[in-house]
Amino acid sequence: MTNSKHHSCRFIRFLVSVPVGMLFSLALFSCAANQPEFTISQYRFSLNDQIYRIRSISFVNKSDSYNEVIGETFMALDYDQDGVLDVLVMGEISLQEAQAIYQQGIRDVMRENKLLVKNRDIRVYAMEKNRIKYEIITFGPADASAFNEFKVRDNRPIIKPEQLILIDHNADGILDDVIQGTAALEKYQWIYKQMIETGLQEGTLIEENGTFLVR
After folding, report:
1. Structure pTM?
2. Is the separation of the CB atoms in 115 and 107 below 8 Å?
């Protein structure tokens, strides 16, 4: 098994800017007269006769930009702009259902050639064994407690590699939910625990007040 600590990841930002976004930034950050504190891009799309919006919030000279997916009754966030939702902010919809909507919006944006993909620094610890890649990604939003994503990518299928994404909402070493794919939490909990222990031994993870975080 090979271990590595990466600091670069693709993030997705939408190029479609709307007047609403400009008004939003002016209203919230009037202190920046010549240069806005952040910019907002927005994309509207429909799925099953419902209208949804994807908003991309990009902060000036900061790395904590993120995407929002907004429906009539829900809102979810993609903290690292990697195309995978991280948390449901409001609504009764499941994170998996919101993810399916988000993916459709991204496909629509790509078809219209309005998607911007860049690299950004994130906190991720990775291992690979038998062509299966495991990643622990730590997020520390300013307005919420830290949490971890656990990604499992099986590269053995040549045509279409399979990817699972699980969430440790409290970064306490216990997986709580599956965002993408079909998986038994118990099966991947053991792998997640072993990876945390290895990361602690290597010094690439730290334990802080009962949480396990990538440095």
Report:
1. 0.60
2. no
Q: The sheet that has 75-78: what strands, in order across it?
A: 38-47, 50-59, 66-70, 75-78, 87-90
Beta strand residue intervals within the chain, DSSP E: 2-6, 9-14, 38-47, 50-59, 66-70, 75-78, 87-90, 115-120, 123-129, 132-139, 147-154, 162-168, 177-180, 205-208, 211-214
> Among candidates 167, 104, 124, which has minimal Cα distance to 10?
124
Tokens of 46: 């429909």
Residue 192 falls within a domain, yes or no? Answer: yes
Q: Which two tokens stand for residue 3?
A: 């271990």
Last residue of a domain, one of 88, 119, 150: 119
Dihedrals φ, ψ of 114, to 5°?
Answer: -120, 25
Q: Which of 204, 212, 149 is CA-nearest to residue 4?
A: 204
Give the model confidence (pLDDT) of 24-80 as tens digits: 222 333 334 455 577 888 899 999 999 999 998 887 655 668 899 999 999 999 988
Query: What token pair was written down for 211?
Result: 């949480």
How many CB atoms sit inside 10 A of residue 76's CB? 23
What are the beta bridge partners of residue 134? 127, 152
Is residue 113 domain-resident? yes
Tokens of 4: 């590595």
pLDDT digits (tens, 9 = 90+) for 191-215: 999 999 999 999 999 999 999 999 8
Judge if 85 and 161 occupy the same domain.
no
